[in-house]
Fold:
Amino acid sequence: MNFETLKSVILVILIMFSLLLTVALWNYQPESERIEDDNYVEDSELAGAEAQLSDIIEPSQIIFHDSSSYTAYEENNEDAGVYELMRDWTIYDLQTPQSQQNTEEEDDDAPAYPEANEMVELAFSTPLPAQVISDIFSLEGEGSYTTSARFDRLFFIIDDANSEIEVRFISTSGDRVMSGFLRNESDIEKLTDEFDNQANKQPMYLFQQDWERRIFLPFDNVEVPIEVVSLNRFPFLPLKNVLFPDPFVVRESQTSSGSQRLSDSFRSVNISKDGKLMEFVNPIDGYSTMNTYEVLTDSINFVNDHRGWTDTYNIMDLSGSENTITYQMYYNQLPIYNGAGLASIDIRYAEEQVAGYNRPLVELESQFPADEREMDTLASGEDLEFFIQQSRRFSTDNIEDINVGYTLTPREEGLDVVYELSPSWFVKVNGSWQQVDTDEKS
Structure:
């Protein structure tokens, strides 16, 4: 082999080696990129839970009617237990009265609240779409009901002369009624047992004797535990990965107020200076009204996707016209009304996309065992009603509802980790819950 031939062979080998290197480079994926992708998947979930629709819909009150007297359980966990039983019941032949099936207008002749001698009444915090009935109960039989209807009251009407119990769903105005029946012997037996059981029940009365407003208050003082909790922050990274399509292009900056701002030039998140609260904005052109069931189910699925139920939340407010929903944080089966944004999840939709998402970046953790809790005594319903009547701050005509709830405040000034849940009376005025301090001068 002469020298020229040898050079040609070497050249061919070098060309082949170059081609192999090129192919290898084309197919090479850096290990760091795989790690980033894995971290993205792992860090798109919080340490919370997933929820079913029936988990976040609970009655705000359960009232037992016996002729002209009313009772309710003293402990809110008793209400929760009764409602848990009800969720296993079957309703037969649920339907909308024929006179209301073909009209969207209010019917002045529609049945008002029932006046049976014996019945159980459930009140809900906000009008709910009729579709949720099948999520809460099992439905059987040949029923036909209007899915556009909404209800915020549920009645189980007991009649010893019948072998079935009528179930009636009514809206606040009383114009939309759906009715069905309990027929399973075991369901009826459980309901009548709860009705007849007087243990742990307290007498109630109607605020202002107003049958239409239906605000039931206790005759006696109310004993509620004071809770001491810590607010444990969780990392924002999972939410960043969820809220931004490409989290790697998100820029971070600090506002003049000290809060943190994250933006991808279109969407943005503001995180409060103390890192406990976030506000997400996704500016979407256009607006179309969603039905309330869509807002409800879509929002639950959205929070489920990143396991965002980091505490116990129940639905508090739902609007189809504004495409908004509010989930209120609950503790000891009581809502936390006054939490400076730390006790609610607010979601807004536009064009069926999440356009706003405000929520706390902390979860509550109890600091003391149940047997070491201090108890607080709240005013009786009658004392509360007298205070409201004498108050210049409230008008009895404007009050929409009254409930016991918690305030969430730092236990000591300057300490932003340990908080106190203090019970108080609250009144609902123009859709907003306001604290009532019966010790202040009216």
Q: What stands out?
A: The chain has a mean pLDDT of 86.
